[in-house]
Amino acid sequence: MEKIIAGKQIDVTEEGFMTDFGQWDKTVGEALAQESSIQLTPRHWEVIAYLQDQFKQEVPLSIRKIGKSGVLDIKEFYALFPNAPLKTATKIAGIPKPVSCI
Question: Is 101 a catalytic residue?
Answer without folding.
Answer: yes
